[in-house]
Amino acid sequence: MLTQVNYRSGRMFDMAAITAQAHAAGTLTVWDLAHTAGAVPVDLRGAKADFAVGCGYKYLNGGPGAPAFVWVHPRHTERFWQPLSGWIGHANPFSFDTAYQPAAGISRYLCGTPAVIAMAALECGVDTLLAAEPLGGMAALRAKSLALTSLFIAQVRERLGAHPLTLATPEDPAQRGSQVSLACPEGGYAVMQALIARGVIGDFRAGNGSTEPDLLRFGFTPLYTQYVDVFDAVTALSEVLTTGEWREARFNQKAAVT
Ligand SMILES: *Cc1c(COP(=O)(O)O)cnc(C)c1O
Fold this sequence. Notes:
The protein is α/β, with parallel strands linked by helices. The chain binds pyridoxal-5'-phosphate.
């Protein structure tokens, strides 16, 4: 199992190459597309992927807790069933059999009654993405996403050079998702809280103290993030660091969600 775009570094892996290596070693793959779907063009069949999962609430705009998704290559659908079996994935849900008989095809991967209201919200989020189709679709969104993240990296270099931040995301666009992470050796959590108070909403992921640094994460959703937002975010970060306002007690109270 591998997340195609790493949630910490924002590094994107080559799905086709890694899947080929896994297959050569007799291994099946599960790709986690949480940071990919809606942000980067994905070609699961082209990569000969086996399985994929993802969430609906990041670049698919479904809102917190939106339904997740599963994809199974047709060569595998009938060979497995998923362990969370439920009546909607049953071959005959209304026969109320005592024995579990999975439905044919991808339907067997369903579980219980779908969260219909949450799916209606997710549908609006996906429709918003699909509305970009006449304007170039995922290819255009990917181009804008890379332009946004490249601009952010360049602005951080140009305007924040005096501060001890380092880029934790690959500079090679082919290895970048739609996120930029900055390693922040001191006060990362509080820096992000101060940014959020200024209306720049990223998040903080703690390191493990030795090999992994504390990170400030910035996600750039290309549908509605503008270049001026990137500029303004770097201005806000510059002010938070230069004034030292992140040291204020109100930004240093750890909340459950970081
Ligand atoms: C957001 C995210 C998910 C989504 O998990 P849920 O259980 O659907 O909330 C899964 N994997 C990764 C790596 C994520 O970042």
